[in-house]
C-alpha cells in the first residue's frame, strides 16, 4: 500500500458488468473493489477475456456499470448520464488504445489538436509531441509514421489536455518489443514528470515490473493486487 | 480552422469523385426546380403585367351583327366596367412571294386611337391614322415570319374584293399572346396573322356601319363573371350571339394557362426524382463512411466530443455535398430559367420579360434540397450519434453470410465461384440493392420521358394527317353557302375531288355539364375527313345521331346511347335533343360530328355548307390556291401539309434539345448511382479482392466480381425503369391533356432502346472508371491493414 497520505483518485466498490446479448448474458466483471491513488502507475494484468478492457472502459466513462459504484474525483460515474460522462471524459481522462486509433486524414499535430481544441487548459500540440519525442514529425500523417510513432502520437493526444488519469489499453499490444519499450518509456516519463495517474492494461507479465502496483485479473474478478517495492525502468524489462 | 473541419475537408476531397457524382444529381434536382419555379414566376409576372398594362378584357363575345346602341344596354349590366365594341373578320391573305394559302383576322381599332381594352403594344411604327383605309398594324409573329416592317404591304380578300393592306405598325396584343388559329393544333405564324385597322374602314368593308360583331368587356372588382356572361348572352341572343367567354376560356389565355400548369407539374416531378435519388446516394455513401469510421467516432467520443458534435461533423459532410449541388444547380437553374423565359417570351410574344429569380425560389430550392439531404441521411447520422464509444472501439462485426437462394435451392453447382460471390453480395444487402435498382430505374424512366415526345408527336401527325384529315386544302366560306359551291370547286382545273362540310356552333349539355363547341357535318361516304375509333379504325358516319370525341364524352359524362341537349348558337338557334351514337378518338380540340344531311335537317336553313375539303391533282396546288384566294365567298384556305411541315421543323429542335437535356440529367443519375455503388463495393471488397489477387486471380476476374454485381443491378433496373417511365408518361399525358390537345399514349420501341442504351453506357463508363482503380490495388498494403 502506498503511503496513507496518497489520496484515491478512483474508488471502485462492488462493481459488476454483465453484457446481455439476446438470451445469453456474459458476466464480464463481478464484485470488483479497487482504489487507484493519485500519481501512481498501475498495471492491469490478465489473460484475454478476463475483463480488463471492460474495467478500464468503465473507469474512463466509456461504458456503464451494471452494478456497484465508481467514483472518480467527485464524479459519480455509476449515476452519471450520457452528458455527464462526456464531460468527464473531456475533462478528466486521456485514453491510449492498442491500435492507436489516429484519424488518418489528420497530421500528428492535428490529431493532438482535435483534443486540445475542446480542453480547458491544454498544452500546445507541439509541446505534447515534444514530450513523446516527436517534435520533428508534426506534419506527418499517420500513414507516414511507424506503429511505435503512431502510438506515441496517440499518447501525446491523450496527455495534451493534462488529464488527471491516463488509461492505456494494451498500448504495446501491436508493437514489437523494442518499439514497445520506447512507448513504455514515454508513459513512464509522463507519469513521473506530470504525475498523471496511469493505468496500463497488458497481458504481458514482463511489463508489470515497471508499475507501482499490479492488479491481476481473471474471469472478471480481481485475483490479487501486488505492490512492487521499486519500479523498473522500461528498458530493464524482460518480455 | 478546427482539426475536425480539416478532417471534413480532406476526407471530402479524397472522395471527390463520389461527392461530385452526388452533387451533380442534386444539381439536377435544384436546377430543374429553380428553372421551373423561376420561369413559372416570370411567366406569371409577365403575363399579369402585360394583362394589366394593356387592359386585357375579362369577357369576350362574338355575334352576327348588332346595332351600336346595344352597347348602352351592355354597359348597364351590373358589374360591367368598360365595354368595347369591335368589328372582327376573317380574311384570306395574299402575301407577295408567298405561295401558300394564308389567313388573317382583321380587328377594328377606334379610329386613329389605340383600343380601350386589349390595347396594342407597338413594337414598330405607328397606329393607323384616321381616314386611311389601307393602313393596318400587323401582329409581330406574322410580321417576323415574313420579315415585314412598317412600309411593307400585302393584300387581303375582303368580301371577294382584293384590298391592299399597308403595314404601318407592328404590335403585340394581350389577346393574342398565343396566336393560334382556332381548330389548329400548332401555331403557324407565317400562314395566320392578326391585323388591326380603323373601325370605320373595316365596318365599311363588311357592311357593319353603325354596328358591331364582337364585344369585349372589363369588369368591376366585385363583379361575378358568370352572372355578367348570362345576362350578356341573353342580350346578344337575338343578334346571333355565340355565347360569351370568360377570360379563362379565351383561347390565348387558355394555352398560356396550360403551359403554366405543365411547368407546375414539372416543378414537382423532376426535382422530386432527382432529390430522391440524391438522398439515397447520400445515405449509401454516408452509411459506408460512418461504418469505416467507427473507431474514429469512438475516439472522438472517448476524448469528450459530445454526440451532438459528432453528429454535426457528419451533418457538415452532407451539407458540403448539398452545398456543392446547390451551387452547381442554382447556377445551372438560373441560366436554364433565363433561357426558358426567353424561349417563352419569343414563343408567346410578350413585349417584355419580367425576369427575376425571387429569393423565395432559391429559398425553396435550398430548403427542399437540405430537407432531402438530411432526411435521406437521417438513419446514418443517427447511427453515428448513437454509437456507444466502447462498442465502437471494436471493429465492425464481420458480415454474416448465409447460404443464398441458389444454394438453398441446391443450384450452386451451376454457378462459378465469382458468380456466387456476386449473388451473395447482392442478397446480403437487399435494401441497398433494391434502392440502387430504383435509382438507376428512375434515370431510365426520365430518359423515356425525354424521348417519348418525339415519337408521340410523329404518331400524332401520322394519325391526324395520315388517317383522319387527308385533304390537301380546306376552305371556309364567309357565310353558309349553297351546295352548288361544291360543283363549282370541283370544276376548277387541278381539283380532283371536293367534299362539303358544315360547322355549326353549339352548346352541348348533359346533366350539369355543358360545353361549347361546333358540330361538324360530314358526308357519310367522305374520304377526306374521317373519324377514327380508339383502335384507329375508320368509323362510318351514322345517318342519325352524334359522334363525339372521347375527351368530350368525359367532360359531359356521356356514353353512346345517352342523349345530349344541343343549343344551336347559329341557324335555327333552337334547342334539340340528340343521341350520342359513338365515340371518336382525337388528339386536338373537342368536336362532335354528324351526318351532313342530318345536321342540315336539325339546323334548318336548308342545305347549307360552311366549308369544303379539296383533294388536289399533283402539281396543281399553286394554281388552285391562287384562284381560291380571289374567290369572293372564301374566307380562308388552309394548306395543312405545309403547316405541319413548318411546325415539325421548328418543333424538332425544341424536342431534341429537351431530349438532350433530359438524357444528360438522367444519364447523370445513372452514372451517380452506379459510380457510388462501385466505389463502395470497391472499398468494402478491397481486402477480398486483393486476397484473391494474391491467390492468383487475374485482374479481369476480380473486375468481373466487382463489376458483375453492378451489371446485374443495371440489368435488373432496366425493366423496372421501363415500368417507371411508362407510369411517368401516363402521368404526363394525363397531366397535359385538356380540351385543347391531348398526347397519344404511344411509346415507340426506339424510346425503350434509347433509354436502355444510355443507362448501359453510363454504367459502362462508371465501371471503367472504377475498374481503373483495381489496377492500383496495393496487394501488400491492403493485406496489412487491420479490419
Ligand atoms: N460488447 C460486448 N458484448 C458482449 N460481450 C462482451 C462485450 N465486450 C466484452 N465482452 C465480453 O466480456 C468479457 C471481457 O472482455 P474484455 O473486457 O474485453 O476482456 P479483456 O480486455 O481482458 O480481453 C469477454 O468474455 C468478452 O467476450
Ligand atoms: Mg482487452
What share of the residues of chain A lie within helices?
A: 25-40%
Structural class of chain A: alpha/beta
Structural domain tally of chain A: 1
| CATH architectural group of chain A | 3-Layer(aba) Sandwich
Order of helices and strands of chain A: EEEHEEHEHHHEHEEE
User: Which stretches of chain A of 5+ consecutive residues score pLDDT under 50?
Assistant: 1-5
The biggest sheet of chain B, with number of strands, parallel, antiparallel or mixed sense and barrel status, is:
6 strands, mixed, barrel
List the strand order in the largest sheet of chain A.
6-7-8-3-9-10
> What percentage of amino acids of chain B are in beta strands?
15-25%
Give the rounded overall mean pLDDT of chain B.
86
The tally of beta strands of chain A, per DSSP, is 10
Rg of chain A, alpha carbons: 17 Å
Task: State the strand order across the main sheet of chain B.
Answer: 3-4-9-6-8-7
Give the termini separation of chain A. Answer: 26 Å
Question: Topology, pairings included?
Answer:
The complex is a heterodimer of chains A (239) and B (787).
Chain A: E1 8-21, E2 24-37, E3 41-45, H1 52-59, E4 67-72, E5 75-76, H2 82-92, E6 93-96, H3 108-116, H4 125-131, H5 147-159, E7 165-169, H6 177-194, E8 197-202, E9 213-218, E10 221-227
Parallel strand pairs in A: 3-8, 3-9, 6-7, 7-8
Antiparallel strand pairs in A: 1-2, 1-4, 4-5, 9-10
Chain B: H1 3-14, H2 16-53, E1 59-67, H3 70-76, E2 80-86, E3 88-94, E4 102-109, E5 121-125, E6 135-139, H4 140-146, E7 153-158, E8 161-172, E9 192-198, H5 199-205, E10 211-219, H6 225-236, E11 245-246, H7 251-292, H8 294-302, H9 307-348, H10 359-386, H11 389-393, H12 405-408, H13 417-428, H14 430-468, E12 473-482, H15 484-491, E13 495-510, E14 513-522, E15 531-532, E16 538-539, E17 546-549, H16 550-556, E18 563-568, E19 575-584, E20 592-595, H17 596-603, E21 608-616, H18 621-630, E22 634-638, H19 640-694, H20 699-736, H21 749-774, H22 779-784
Bound molecules: adenosine-5'-diphosphate and magnesium ion.
Amino acid at each position: 500500500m502506498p503511503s496513507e497520505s496518497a489520496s484515491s483518485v478512483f474508488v471502485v466498490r462492488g462493481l459488476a458488468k454483465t453484457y446481455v446479448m439476446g438470451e445469453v448474458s456474459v458476466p464480464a466483471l463481478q464484485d470488483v473493489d479497487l482504489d487507484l491513488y493519485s500519481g501512481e502507475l498501475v498495471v492491469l494484468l490478465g489473460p484475454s477475456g478476463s475483463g480488463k478492457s471492460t474495467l478500464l472502459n468503465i473507469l474512463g466513462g466509456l461504458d456503464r456499470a451494471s452494478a456497484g459504484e465508481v467514483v472518480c474525483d467527485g464524479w459519480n460515474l455509476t449515476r452519471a448520464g450520457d452528458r455527464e460522462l462526456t464531460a468527464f471524459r473531456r475533462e478528466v481522462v486521456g485514453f491510449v488504445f492498442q491500435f492507436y486509433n489516429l484519424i488518418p486524414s489528420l497530421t500528428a499535430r492535428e490529431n493532438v489538436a482535435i483534443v486540445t481544441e475542446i480542453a480547458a487548459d491544454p498544452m500546445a500540440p507541439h509541446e505534447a509531441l515534444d514530450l513523446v519525442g516527436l517534435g520533428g514529425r508534426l506534419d506527418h500523417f499517420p500513414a507516414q509514421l511507424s506503429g511505435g510513432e503512431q502510438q506515441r502520437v496517440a499518447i501525446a493526444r491523450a496527455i495534451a489536455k493534462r488529464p488527471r488519469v491516463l488509461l492505456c489499453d494494451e498500448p504495446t499490444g501491436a508493437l514489437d518489443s523494442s518499439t514497445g519499450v520506447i512507448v513504455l518509456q514515454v508513459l513512464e516519463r509522463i507519469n513521473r514528470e506530470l504525475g498523471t495517474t496511469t493505468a496500463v492494461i497488458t497481458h504481458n507479465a514482463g511489463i508489470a515490473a515497471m508499475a507501482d502496483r499490479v492488479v491481476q485479473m481473471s474471469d472478471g474478478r480481481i485475483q490479487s493486487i501486488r505492490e512492487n517495492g521499486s519500479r523498473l525502468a522500461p528498458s530493464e524489462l524482460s518480455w | 480552422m478546427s482539426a475536425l473541419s480539416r478532417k471534413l475537408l480532406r476526407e471530402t476531397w479524397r472522395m471527390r469523385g463520389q461527392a461530385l457524382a452526388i452533387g451533380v444529381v442534386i444539381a439536377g434536382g435544384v436546377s430543374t426546380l429553380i428553372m421551373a419555379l423561376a420561369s413559372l414566376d416570370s411567366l406569371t409576372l409577365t403575363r399579369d403585367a402585360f394583362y394589366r398594362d394593356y387592359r386585357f378584357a375579362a369577357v369576350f363575345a362574338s355575334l352576327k351583327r348588332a346595332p351600336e346602341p346595344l352597347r348602352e344596354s351592355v354597359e348597364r349590366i351590373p358589374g360591367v366596367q368598360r365595354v368595347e365594341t369591335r368589328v372582327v373578320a376573317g380574311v384570306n391573305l395574299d402575301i407577295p412571294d408567298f405561295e401558300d394559302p394564308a389567313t388573317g383576322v382583321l380587328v377594328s381599332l377606334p379610329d386613329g386611337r389605340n383600343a380601350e381594352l386589349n390595347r396594342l403594344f407597338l413594337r414598330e411604327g405607328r397606329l393607323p391614322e384616321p381616314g386611311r383605309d389601307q393602313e393596318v398594324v400587323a401582329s409581330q409573329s406574322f410580321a417576323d415570319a415574313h420579315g415585314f416592317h412598317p412600309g411593307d404591304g400585302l393584300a387581303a380578300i375582303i368580301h371577294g374584293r382584293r384590298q391592299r393592306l399597308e403595314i404601318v405598325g407592328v404590335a403585340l396584343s394581350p389577346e393574342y399572346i398565343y396566336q393560334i388559329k382556332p381548330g389548329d393544333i400548332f401555331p403557324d405564324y407565317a400562314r395566320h396573322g392578326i391585323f388591326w385597322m380603323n373601325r370605320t374602314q373595316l365596318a365599311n368593308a363588311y357592311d357593319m356601319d353603325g354596328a358591331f360583331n364582337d364585344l369585349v368587356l372589363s369588369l368591376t372588382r366585385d363583379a361575378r363573371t358568370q352572372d355578367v356572361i348570362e345576362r350578356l348572352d341573353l342580350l346578344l341572343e337575338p343578334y346571333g350571339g355565340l355565347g360569351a367567354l370568360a377570360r379563362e376560356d379565351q383561347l390565348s389565355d387558355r394555352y398560356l394557362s396550360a403551359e403554366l400548369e405543365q411547368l407546375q407539374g414539372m416543378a414537382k416531378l423532376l426535382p422530386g426524382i432527382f432529390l430522391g435519388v440524391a438522398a439515397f446516394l447520400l445515405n449509401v455513401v454516408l452509411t459506408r463512411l460512418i461504418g469505416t469510421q467507427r473507431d474514429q467516432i469512438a475516439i472522438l467520443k472517448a476524448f469528450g466530443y459530445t454526440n451532438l458534435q459528432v453528429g454535426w461533423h457528419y451533418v457538415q459532410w452532407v451539407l458540403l455535398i448539398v452545398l456543392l449541388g446547390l451551387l452547381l444547380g442554382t447556377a445551372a437553374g438560373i441560366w436554364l430559367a433565363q433561357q426558358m423565359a426567353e424561349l417563352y417570351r419569343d414563343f408567346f410574344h410578350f413585349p417584355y420579360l419580367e425576369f427575376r429569380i425571387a429569393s423565395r425560389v432559391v429559398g425553396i430550392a435550398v430548403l427542399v434540397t437540405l430537407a432531402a439531404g438530411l432526411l435521406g441521411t437521417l438513419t446514418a447520422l443517427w447511427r453515428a450519434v448513437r454509437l456507444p464509444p466502447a462498442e465502437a472501439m471494436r471493429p465492425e462485426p464481420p458480415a454474416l453470410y448465409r447460404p443464398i437462394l441458389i444454394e438453398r435451392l441446391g443450384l450452386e453447382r451451376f454457378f462459378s465461384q465469382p458468380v456466387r460471390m456476386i449473388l451473395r453480395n447482392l442478397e446480403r444487402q437487399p435494401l441497398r440493392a433494391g434502392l440502387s435498382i430504383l435509382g438507376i430505374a428512375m434515370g431510365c424512366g426520365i430518359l423515356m420521358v425525354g424521348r417519348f415526345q418525339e415519337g408521340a408527336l410523329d404518331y400524332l401527325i401520322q394519325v391526324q394527317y395520315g388517317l383522319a384529315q387527308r385533304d390537301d386544302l380546306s376552305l371556309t366560306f364567309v357565310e353558309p353557302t349553297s351546295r352548288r359551291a361544291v360543283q363549282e370547286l370541283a370544276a376548277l382545273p387541278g381539283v380532283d375531288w371536293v367534299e362539303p362540310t358544315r360547322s355549326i356552333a353549339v352548346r352541348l349539355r348533359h346533366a350539369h355539364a355543358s360545353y361549347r363547341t361546333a358540330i361538324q357535318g360530314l358526308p357519310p361516304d367522305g374520304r377526306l375527313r374521317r373519324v377514327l375509333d380508339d383502335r384507329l379504325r375508320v368509323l362510318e358516319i351514322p345517318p342519325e345521331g352524334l359522334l363525339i370525341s372521347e375527351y368530350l364524352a368525359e367532360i359531359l359524362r356521356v356514353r353512346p346511347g345517352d342523349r345530349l341537349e344541343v343549343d344551336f348558337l347559329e341557324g335555327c338557334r333552337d334547342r334539340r335533343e340528340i343521341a350520342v351514337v359513338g365515340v371518336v378518338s382525337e388528339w386536338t380540340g373537342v368536336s362532335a360530328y354528324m351526318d351532313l344531311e342530318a345536321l342540315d335537317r336539325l339546323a334548318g336553313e336548308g342545305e347549307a355548307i360552311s366549308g369544303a375539303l379539296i383533294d388536289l391533282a399533283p402539281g396543281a396546288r399553286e394554281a388552285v390556291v391562287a384562284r381560291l384566294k380571289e374567290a369572293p365567298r372564301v374566307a380562308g384556305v388552309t394548306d395543312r401539309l405545309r403547316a405541319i411541315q413548318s411546325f415539325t421543323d421548328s418543333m424538332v429542335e425544341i424536342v431534341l434539345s429537351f431530349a438532350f437535356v433530359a438524357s444528360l440529367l438522367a444519364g447523370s443519375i445513372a452514372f451517380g448511382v452506379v459510380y457510388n455503388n462501385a466505389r463502395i463495393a470497391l472499398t468494402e471488397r478491397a481486402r477480398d479482392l486483393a486476397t484473391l489477387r494474391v491467390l492468383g486471380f487475374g485482374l479481369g476476374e476480380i473486375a468481373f466480381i466487382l463489376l458483375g454485381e453492378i451489371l446485374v443491378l443495371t440489368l435488373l433496373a432496366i425493366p423496372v425503369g421501363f415500368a417507371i417511365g411508362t407510369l411517368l408518361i401516363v402521368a404526363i399525358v394525363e397531366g397535359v391533356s385538356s380540351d385543347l390537345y391531348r398526347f397519344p399514349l404511344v411509346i415507340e420501341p426506339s424510346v425503350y432502346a434509347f433509354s436502355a442504351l444510355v443507362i448501359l453506357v453510363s454504367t459502362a463508363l462508371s465501371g471503367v472508371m472504377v475498374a481503373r482503380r483495381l489496377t492500383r490495388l496495393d496487394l501488400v498494403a491492403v493485406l496489412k491493414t487491420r479490419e
